[in-house]
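Q: I have 94 residues here and want to know how they pack in 3D. Can you give me a structure?
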Amino acid sequence: MAKNRSELVAEVAGKTSLSQTAVNGVLDALFEVFETSVASGEKVSIPGWLAVERTERAARTGRNPQTGAAIEIPAGFSVKLTAGSKLKAAASGK
């Protein structure tokens, strides 16, 4: 079962004294910080919960699934999310 953004905002607002508009603004600001940090190559770490960082992907040879022809995939960047100890414990039911 997945939780969408509006459900998350409503739940956080219910657990705090903040309005849904305020919680939505905080989430927007948080994701903006993630975006600018990852774009500049900085790692964002929330100890025990989450780490977000940009990783480099080397150029490689792939295959076109329709024709089977070899294609060159250029080098690029990706994003790596790492779960912290508290998040891992919650996932394992501890």
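Q: Anything worth noting?
A: The chain has three helices and five strands. The two ends are 20 Å apart (CA to CA).
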